[in-house]
Amino acid sequence: MLAADLLRIRAELEVDIDRKHGDLLKRTREEAEDFMRKAVATITAEAELAEKRARHRLWISSLFILAWAVLGLLYVLVRRYFGLGG
Predict the structure, then answer these.
(1) Rounded Cα distance, 36 and 40, in Å
(2) Is 14 left (phi over 0), alpha (psi -120 to 50) or beta?
(3) Does the predicted TM-score (pTM) go above 0.70?
(4) pLDDT tier at 85 (50, 70, 90 boundaries)?
(5) Residue 67: CB partners within 8 Å, gap ≥ 6?
(6) Measured between alpha carbons, how far is 24 from 40 in angstroms, rounded to an integer?
């Protein structure tokens, strides 16, 4: 009996709150959804920018390694061609 009364009172309170503050709850929910949409868009944009920067750094370091390899090969070839060293 007590449980049924509590459930009835809870249902009445929910209806009363929805009637009195329904617009506020709806507006708050819409503002929260809008905030989440903007937050997700911002995070996605920042992640894409970070990924672009990471790819850029990877290309630069790859070119740097390739340049050192080419310089090393040229050094070896020049030493052999001119007979410098052992």
Answers:
(1) 6
(2) alpha
(3) no
(4) low
(5) none
(6) 24
